[in-house]
Automatic annotation (TrEMBL):
Gene3D superfamilies: Mannitol-specific EII, Chain A (3.40.930.10), PRD domain (1.10.1790.10), Winged helix-like DNA-binding domain superfamily/Winged helix DNA-binding domain (1.10.10.10)
UniProt name for this protein: BglG family transcription antiterminator
InterPro entries membership: BglG_antiterminators, PRD, PRD_sf, PTrfase/Anion_transptr, PTS_EIIA_type-2_dom, WH-like_DNA-bd_sf
Superkingdom per UniProt: Bacteria
PANTHER family: CRYPTIC BETA-GLUCOSIDE BGL OPERON ANTITERMINATOR (PTHR30185), TRANSCRIPTIONAL REGULATOR MTLR (PTHR30185:SF18)
Domain PTS EIIA type-2, chain residue ranges per copy: 502-643
Amino acid sequence: MTRRRQDRVLGILMRRGDWVTAATLADQLGVTPRSVRSYVTAVNARVPGGDAIESGPAGYRASAGAAAALRAGAEPDPGTPRERLHAIVRALLDADGGIDVHATADRMHVSSATLEADLGRVRALLSGSDLALERAGSRVRLAGSELAQRRFVSRLAHDEMDDGAFDLDALRRAADTMAIPSEALGAFKTDLVARLGELGFFVNEFAAADVVLHVAIAADRVAQGRALEAVHGEPDATRERIAGALGELTERHFGVGLGQGDRLHLAALVLTRIVVPGSSDDPASPGLDPAIEAAVRGAVSRAAQDYLVDIAHADFVERLALHVQNLVHRAREQAWSRNPLTRTLKSAYPMIFDVAVSIASELSEALGVPIRDDEIAYIAMHVGGRLERSRRAESMLTATIVCPGYYELHELLRSSVDRSLGRSIEVTGVETRVDPDWEAIGTDLVLTTIEPPLGADGRAMSDRIVRIQPFLTDADVERVSAAASRVRRARRLGRLRAELARYFAPGAFVRGLDASRGADGMIRDLGALLIDQGVIDGDYVDSTIERERLSSTAFTDTLAVPHALRMTAERTAIAIGVSEQPVAWGDARVNVVALVAFSESDRPAFQTVFEQFVEVFGEPDSASRIIRRSSDRSSFLDELAAVIDG
């Protein structure tokens, strides 16, 4: 029973915020429901009263003590393979001459064969790290530069962090696993952010904890006599100022004096990770690289054209280019920046994330650097920020107020509605009669101070009619907001139902995916169904697999939507694969794979199909119903329509 799996259970429940069955949790973790019960018991044991996870007939739900349980530290068992692995890595990092296999095995109270197996795991961890194990007889040493060793420590610490968590408590736990001094992390971060603000910079709080971890690693290594001597790049005035601040704060909080090499190296990390370049008034701040700006402008223009999104604006290109300039520095240094919102952005805003993937793909090719999921998520945040204003305008609903005239009562009510709900509802009409023609009111919502007539069945005429008080109350505002949400959802899902009926390809349905084929193989299997119908060719399938390698299309816990970045299909069509048991899809496990082939002529449908399809499968109960009851294409469409109609 591992802490990591316990934390994954807790993380899923906290994200869902509702009841989740043991079977669903077991599917997501790839374990049995019995194991889930043991994880829940272990999590509840972390907090007094055992109230982290509530159990009931509907399954499990995060309770009042969930956050405390996630933060609660668990004393590691030094005898576990993971703790032994960490001990071996620390020993290799600390010993210039390496370690003796037999002596180390005796010290850890394991056999030499067990230690040899652990060294094999260490070699696997070193893959892609510019480090290697060198052996001479029974002695093994870690070969590689000091900078590569620090990056390796940082990566191991990140691997220990909770899924999606990047707060200071999670950072402290991760640091402790690698024996990095963690006591002063919080105070150091607070002072660092304040000092950078004083220097005129805007700070990216999401990445600040990551830089703090690097500072702690540097302090630990310098204390052991392992300072960085080389200065990377010609230090300018801005870098020198930040280096000075870092040196002062590190000595104050960690009690370690950093040399020039370490100060300037950490200053470079700050400049490329947690501050916005150009936000400082310092005239010596580095400007924008014209080549990067041109690459960003080209990638944004292509994405705007392909996805029909309004992002091709000079101010947006400039801000994104400044971010990409830092991204390029990070990529060349293999110093990636984590984004704790990656999973949320992917599941909640799949279309925006896909626009970001398109931009990242163009930039990766143009600039010659790889761009990972966390970095794509930062690009998605830029794209989402630019689109938010137009998305808000599109989501605006119209409303008619029904308020029989008495002095200026209807005017006061309209003013109250505008003040409390004006960002989401536009009042386009006011009825002051006591007997309005209810059927003739065509706005999205009707806000009435009098009782509306009932329908023939004795029920309310429509869900869009909301009863409010003549003097608007907080409860009224909540009811209107809830009704508006229902209308928007019905509108979105109604469009989805109309589109899906057109696009589901006859015969392109598979019940029982072959998990042994892997994601690439399943894409090819579903793609073959569309190839047979003349919708796509082999190149489209290859492009879909290439897109999948850029960033996983597992947008929810149950659904993957593989697709190509270019809309080159003869017509838009969808091939569906359903599996009762989840299949591995990248780092996730899914039950439904929807291979979507989009044509150029159907670009306007992309957002409707893409986002709302993901929305349906983002609701666990709806997804479970569709998966369980779909035996063929017809029943899949029937269940999908039933879910959409509520």
